[in-house]
Amino acid sequence: MRVLFIHADHFEYEVRDKAVKIPEEISDAQRKAAMDEALVAFCTIEKDDEKNPELIITRATEDVRNVADQVHAKNIILYPYAHLSSSLGSRDPAIQILKGMEKNLANQGYIVKRSPFGWYKSFAIKCKGHPLSELSRSITIEEEKTKAATIDIVYKIMDVDGKLYTPDEYMKKPGRDDFKSLVEKEALKQGLLGGQPKFLDYCKKFGIEWEPFSDVGHMRYGPEATLMFDLVAEYSWMVAKSLAVPIFQVRGTNMFNLAERPVKEHAKLFGSKLYEVKVDEKEFVLRYAACHQQFSMVKDWSLSYKQIPFGTFEVADSYRLEQSGELLLCFRVRKMHMPDLHIYCKNLDDSMKTSFKVHEKIYEEIRKLNREYVSIYNTTRSFYDKNTEFFKKLIEIERKPILLGFVPDNIYYWVMNIEYNIIDELDRPREIGTVQIDVGNAERFGISYVDENGNRKYPPIIHTALIGTVERYIYTLLDQAALNEKNGKKPSIPVWISPTQVRVIPVAKEHLDYASRVADDLEKANIRVDIDDRDESVPKKVRSAEIAWIPYVVVVGEKEIENSVVSVRTRFDKSQKTIQAEELRNEVLKQIKGYPVHASTLTRMLSARPGYKTV
Questions:
Q1: What 8-state DSSP symbol labels residue 186?
Q2: Which residues lie across from 279 on neighbouring strands?
Q3: Longest C-alpha distance within the chain, in Å?
Q4: How much of the chain exceeds pLDDT 70, in percent?
Q5: In whole angstroms, what is the distance from residue 171 CA to residue 13 CA?
Q6: 5, 289, 307, 498: which sits with the fewest CB atoms below 10 Å from its CB?
Q7: DSSP string, 340-377
Q8: Residue 416: is its pLDDT beyond 60?
């Protein structure tokens, strides 16, 4: 902020016309004012002032008060003036700062008048002309350094028996396991192995790719990939609802004003990875996850202890300015979709009980994919020492050691932050799921509830993405397929998420009617089915289905029509059998039980699809 002070015998102004598109709203009484024996402060609010409006208000108030005391003025006029700087602040923060100064000075006993912001005004001034009657000030704030840059993390390993090791001690133990890969990368800071991951080839198969017309790190999804995306998003909601906690689905925006104090404070935690945009001279941050939206909403709810715990959920488009050299399709992207769940708890004990249920659910889901996590538990030493038994209980679910990362107290908004990693096909740890116990954001955002005694309390908040982002869940499935292929098995994905679950291949055109009746029967059971009606040989059609990873391939010809059966090839066990269509339907339904059902958005006939070529 830049301020020009004039100690005046007399000052008066009158509003004439709008100076900005949307000026400050004013009453008739505010259109003109006059004051004798006044200190006039011509104030230019600058762009940097928006970074910490509260601090600028405090410092500017102090500066105005000091000058007023020097010239023995009890009357003060605050006059917005856009001509002292070329880096002008935007409307709302400027009004906020000027109103804050007005309030503070009035509370300190000064008689204050404030000229409205955003209007052209005529004014008359008579300067006293003494040595202190004309002064200028430049009021600045120093940017806080990113806390993460100075944090020292002390790593320990807790074994399943509760014993603690240093990373070096643990690495000397015999045997090689996935957990040691995590220790090497995180605690010992050894680089990741190189190599081209196999899953990238699989992404092309389903139409998962980068969008070249956007910023780097943004993805696009073809028809098959879009089906997969929608299924995972729906499944994430099903998993959230399966917790023994009431969960409410909400929806909101992805852009939040950095001039809002809670948004600003929360944003500072993420440093250089924030995506920032400027609109109408205002600075916004694109949400890192769904925290801003859900917290902004819940702060306006009336909450009682009787409703707690409860959760809010959204599959939130989230943005992180990852380094371009570190981007990896599906895994490290600049726009992701976070199935973000926040659970509001009564107290810290309640949050630990609830986070244990979340921990169980996270492990239940990864084990459905025949995978295991290796975990990093970031926490404070004081929280760990008070709750060691809680950590031991969590390890019972893990059934393996954990890496503890001890951080100083009062640095982060959480007291525990678990990062769940798979070890990928190239022996590299990859973070998928998370859970945090947050003890800071409820107060920051003004979220409170009334307890049994009528007292207002701030609830600890559990943050979690139970299955990871939509993209990372798909990544996990494709990485598992790569591991299967590496171990001599056919790469595949689960039936429930396969864009086409059954493909029917008529031997000839005259068998197409029967193929359609088989497809009709399967579709009635909510099974996604298509028909390869192209003018190709049966071996080529079967090969095409193999390349597309279709779980069930059905061939129908004269023999099948005569016996009212279907010949089925199953991808998982390479079996071939002739069965009733009803048996096939029941087998597929068994495979997809407990998972979301989504009608196919693809054309039934392959010949109608663009881009399909003869295999």
A1: I
A2: 282
A3: 112
A4: 97
A5: 76
A6: 307
A7: EEEEE-SSHHHHHHHHHHHHHHHHHHHHHTT---EEEE
A8: yes
Could you tell me which residues are beta bridge partners of residue 486? none
What average pLDDT score do residues 387-404 get?
A: 95
Question: How far is 222 from 206, CA to CA, in rounded Å?
Answer: 7
pLDDT at position 150: 55
> How wide is the angle at C-alpha 472 spanned by C-alphas 470 and 477, nearest 5°?
100
CB 287 within 8 Å of CB 319: yes
CA 308 to chain centre: 24
Q: Sorting pLDDT into bands at 50, 70 and 90, what band is 193?
A: low
Instruction: Find out whether 285 and 258 touch, Cβ atoms under 8 Å.
Output: yes
Decide if pLDDT at 5 tops 70: yes
Which domains does the chain show, CATH number per domain?
2-138 (3.50.80.10), 197-250+290-375+415-478 (3.30.930.10), 495-608 (3.40.50.800)
Residue 159 DSSP class: -
Residue 194 pLDDT > 80: no
| Per-residue DSSP letter, 150 | G
Q: Residue 281, exposed/middle/buried by CB under 10 A (0-12, 13-18, 19+)?
A: middle
**Strand pairing class (154-158; 402-407):** antiparallel
pLDDT at 147: 40
Give the pLDDT confidence score for residue 615 in this predicted structure.
Answer: 32
Q: Alpha carbon 579 to chain centroid distance?
A: 47
> What whole-number distance in Å separates Cα of residue 39 and Cα of residue 18?
25
Q: How far apart are CA 225 and CA 205, in angstroms?
A: 9
pTM of this prediction?
A: 0.77
Q: How many CB atoms lie within 10 A of CB 409?
A: 10
- d(CA 357, CA 242) in angstroms, rounded, equals 11
